[in-house]
Amino acid sequence: MIFAFAAISFADEGMWRYSEQNKRTQALCKSIVSIDFMGTGSLISPDGLVITNHHVAYSDVAAMSDKKQNYLEDGFWAATLGDEIPIRGRSVQILRESHDVTAEVQQLLDAGTVKPGLMMMRRLSGIMEKRWKEKTGYEAVLSSDWKGSKYYIDLYNEYKDIRLVGAPPSRLGAFGGDEDNWEWPQHKCDFALLRIYVAKDGSAATYSPENVPLHTDNYLKISTKGYREGSKTTIIGFPGHTDRYASSAKVDYMTSVQLPIQTGIRGAQMDIIKKWMDRDPEVRLKYSNFFFGLSNAQELYLGELQCYKRFGAAEAKREAEAELSAWLDEDPARRAEWGDPAGQLRKSYEAVAEPQRNFQYFRECIIRGTQLEPVATRTFILLGRYSPDKVPGVRKSTQRNYEQTDLRVERELFRMGLETFYEHVPDGLLGPWQKEVKEKWGRNYDGMCAALWDESWMTDPAQIAVFLDPGSDMKSFLEARTDDPLVRFFNDVRVSRYNEAISAAQGSPDINALAKDYTHAMYAMQLDKKRNPYPDANSTLRVNHGRVRGLSPRDAVHCDYYSTVAGLLEKHDPDSYDFCLPASWKAALEKASPKMKVNFITDNDSTGGNSGSPVLNSRGEIIGLLFDGNKESLASEVLFTPEYNRSVNVDIRFVVWTLKEYAHFDRIVNEIGL
């Protein structure tokens, strides 16, 4: 079924709920899929074919790849339906209905069935989702807007037999790598094709060779007519998270504490991993998915840090708080009800700055510092609460840890994290073993690393093999190694000690409760001033309207609204992995028109989770796939900047050209009617 739009009124800022759209837009939404609420896809044929971003499918393609069949490097194009590969553990969800259940939730709260607190939303979700699933048969998901001012139940069909149909090599999908990430112009061919399979009766089912492609009347048409600057665009997808109601105190905390620590440590980790990936192809295969996620987050956090400062996010929040304070002062009853929410938040953030700083170093250096930390924690817990039925699962998950890592890389990551941790975390938060290690080695971190890492069973291939052997006695193995220095180090102090320090510093009410009051007051003011406030993104289906639009990112610089094949070929660098075009793709590009559009930008409001969202023209046809934002848009977590915010999209005509001229994927080109 092909849909059409009526005239669209622009609402550039804000991601609007499905239930607020007109019937035609709601009909379009039935063709949009969530990919486990981590990305977005679109149905583009009556036989369950889904198009999304390559980077949304990246982890799945990586999991399917090995030395013999490296689909990340070589790409994958299923010659027949029978060649489409099942994706282990992957599901997609299609929204069917959405209901405002604010009154129903309020009844539970008023009756005391669920009480306020940290676990309130989880308990509410358990009750409401069970109730609505039993009533409707759909998978039900509860969400809240404006921190509990409104509640909604979204009902989904969930499909669990998802198969990979096609994906270009990662050097096409991620052309330009970290250097081009969050930049404009870009030249990526960021798409992948999946298919939904169901039981023969059309019902959702787990994988079976007897399953058949989903038949649906709800799918989107692809347009090859293009666009021009000023063309109307709509994106529909599942944006993950925004915090547009964040206080100035939170922005100040992010820019002075959390983001500098995260970006500093993760940048150092990336340098280590990339060095080894460039040196050894086997390391690249093992770390490709991990590094992809790490680098994407790193670019995001760096961009947020820079943009919060450049665009004066904290100052903008203070202006909004001044307006809120004046509004509260207009009515003594308001002031009595709300108090000074912005002032209270600032005092709380100032109180927790130091314990939060310590926690960030602990998390980044110890919990996230090496991928052997989960092995140490898992085995430590198992020994303390030994249960034979847990052993197979522990072995399986530990096997994955070792398969996806290289001990040389992990040792260097540990050495770096060890020094950073000890240089920044005070002795009062160290465990007894961590203190003993520090007293013995001081700042001799090379010696300290050798004493911990090199003397552990977790880094000895022979002992690892014994541990993973299903025939070995795991309990006896661990009991003989209770003094393992590395296991002791990782488990000497748990995160609870750091959380307790944070809780003691902030007192009661905590920051979450204060932020809730602050948001409720802001929301009440917006309603009173008749501003029709939009909610934050929260992984539910949202719609945003915008237009194709160029960019002037800084003084005396203007960027056009599209990039071309000519620019793509200009970037080719045989000495750079990220900018080296595969020979077959380069040959095909050289035969194409140099003016063919590759990527384009729009001023749509989007965020993580929108990856793979269709960019639709005024007729509801796909003209592109959203895959990124520009660096100047990275303040949009807390502050939308309309003159600078851009969504970066791959031109659907470039995707079609790649399917035809590079992949020669005729069966799929025919299936989508092109």
Question: Mind sketching the topology for me?
Answer:
Elements: E1 16-17, H1 23-29, E2 32-34, E3 40-43, E4 49-52, H2 54-64, H3 71-74, E5 76-77, E6 85-86, E7 92-100, H4 102-110, H5 120-136, E8 139-145, E9 150-159, E10 161-167, H6 170-173, H7 177-180, E11 192-198, E12 212-213, E13 232-237, H8 248-279, H9 281-310, H10 313-329, H11 332-338, H12 341-367, H13 373-384, H14 391-403, H15 407-424, H16 432-441, H17 445-453, H18 461-468, H19 474-479, H20 485-491, H21 495-506, H22 511-528, E14 542-547, E15 562-564, H23 565-571, H24 583-591, E16 597-602, E17 614-616, E18 622-629, E19 647-651, H25 652-662, H26 666-671
Antiparallel strand pairs: 1-14, 2-3, 3-4, 4-11, 5-10, 6-10, 7-9, 8-9, 10-11, 11-12, 13-14, 13-17, 15-16, 16-19, 17-18, 18-19
Helix pairs in contact: 8-9, 8-10, 8-12, 8-15, 10-11, 12-15, 12-21, 12-22, 13-14, 13-20, 15-17
